[in-house]
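User: Please predict structures.

Assistant: First:
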Amino acid sequence: MLKRERLLTIKKLVQERGIITVKELIDQLGVSDMTIRRDLDELADSGKLIRVHGGAQSIDSSENNELSHIEKKEIHLAEKQQIAREAAQLIKEGDTIYIGPGTTQELIERYLPAISNLRVVTNSFPIFQSWKNRNNVDLILVGGNFRQRSGAFIGGLANDTLAELKFNKAFVGVNGIHNDSMMTANTEEGKSQSVALNNAKEKIVLADKFKINRDDFYQFYNLYDVDYLITNPDISEEILTHYQQFTKVKLASE
């Protein structure tokens, strides 16, 4: 089977089944583990499917079935690292920042320059974990109802607390951006991010290129109302021009 035919077959199988494992593809196509993994990586890089641990998931399936936190951590890592590195450069001495839930936001701490005077507020337990050992940071975890799937604290208690706080900068993620709509899978998680964004002087959304022109369940904010969209540098000129209509687009360094 030629490579092009193999890629088309993989794409078709993923679309039909929603989620498929590497082993199933090996059995179906009769090629090596390494070949299947390379093919899946190539299809994921071109936005044809989503790479998950041990296999792949269709784009359509992922819009209807939110990936778990562990699954999200394992996909598009290089693109997330680019964006997190760029976001970290915006944090300055003396800032009070909000960091919303999300696997890209969890990477910001590792790229932060040496800063001795910083306050970090989050309603994400994984983000709290990533910051807890950093010295000279005033770290605040906002409580509420715990959402296992993302590790976020949400609901009335979280929103009431966030409503009383003011931030120099807020960094939030999305499950999808389509035109001026910023979307996520869970209404309560979206509401908490919206409250924090409304209380921030600078509103910054982080979205890798695979989130752009993609829909999800709940529109929680308008792209017109944020200051920056940080995304990957290899988006097309057409996409860049389109999204510059709504906000300033900051391309991460390669």
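Second:
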Amino acid sequence: MIVTQTVPQTPSETPTPTENATPTPTASAAPTGTDTAEGGLPPWLWWLLAVVLTGLVAYLILRARRRSAWDAEAAETEVDVRWLALELLPQLQQSGTPDALAGGWHVSAARASAVEDRLTGLETSAPDELRATRARHLRDAVRAARADVESQISSGDQASTPVVLAASIARLQELLNPAPPTG
């Protein structure tokens, strides 16, 4: 015969929740756009900073190119002002007759007028006030030289022509070769 023995079983106890239970720590939620990792800046701020810096660099490059192009055009125009001051006006100053003065001017008046027009354009497009002032002063001197020649042609006074044109030449040369600052 087989004897089986039974072991008395106790009912299993289930823990009852208590009111003072502390929650177990869980993983934190993913950071949002305004959260920062370890005190750093949010990513969108870095992107904004990169865009602003890129725009600033592009602006500075364009400004430098514009200034360089203006300087090149001004240098070309000054070559024509030098031609007027060092070649044309001295030749006209040496003309022996009112007809020679009128003929020499007639051949070159369009070029002198074009120089004046270019200087007007340079004044309005100058990148700074110093350059605009220089272009304006050169333009005014070229305009005065043109007016001097035309007044000499219309007056027919060949005796005063050398003196009047010498004053125009001196005015242009003073602007083209300014005296060094003293101090």
